[in-house]
Amino acid sequence: MTLTLYRPTGPQELALVEASGFRRWPPRLPDQPIFYPVTNEAYAIQIARDWNVPASGKGYVTKFEVDEVFMSQFPIHTVGGSEHQEWWVPAEKLEELNDHIVGIIQVIHSFGS
Q1: Is residue 47 domain-resident?
Q2: Which domain holds residue 97?
Q3: Global confidence as pTM
Q4: Residue 109 and residue 44: Cα distance in Å, rounded?
Q5: Chain-centroid distance, C-alpha 99
Q6: Dist. CA 65–CA 45, nearest whole Å
Q7: 3-class DSSP state of 21
Q8: How does 42-63 read in b/e, with b if 16+ C-beta sit within 10 Å?
Q9: What's the pLDDT tens digit per position in 54-78?
Q10: Residue 88 scores a pLDDT above 80
């Protein structure tokens, strides 16, 4: 079985995802120790629209499937209201997460100019 994950992202990260054939997330930067996919589309929309657009002019919401057993090792954190839930995947586990993506990473929303 798989879980559906959502990831709000800006244009630079999305360009790297596109370069991978929409199959992999790029490595985290040194100051980014955790990869934060979120549990629901509404929260991803909020971040893409309210944070990514002001920061970079564009914001995107992506959706992807990951093996449920693999994801069970990572905690889900609530970081605001009950809808603000995200997985905290350590940066050193990101390549392994990429290996457990089923299908492709899809862009489902776009915001900004």
Answers
A1: yes
A2: 2-26+38-106
A3: 0.94
A4: 9
A5: 15
A6: 18
A7: coil
A8: ebbbbbbbeebbeeeebbbbbb
A9: 999 999 999 999 999 999 999 999 9
A10: yes
pLDDT, the chain, mean: 96
Q: How far is CA 98 from CA 24, 55, 68, 74, in A?
A: 5, 26, 13, 14
Closest alpha carbon to 45 in 25, 57, 60? 60
31 in any annotated domain:
no
Largest interatomic CA distance in the chain: 39
Phi, then psi, of 34 in degrees rounded to 5: -135, 140
Whether 65 contacts 103, CB under 8 Å:
yes
**CA–CA distance, 54 with 108 (Å, rounded to integer):** 19
Residue range 10-15: mean pLDDT, rounded: 96
Residue type, 65: E
Look up residue 104 and give its amino acid: I
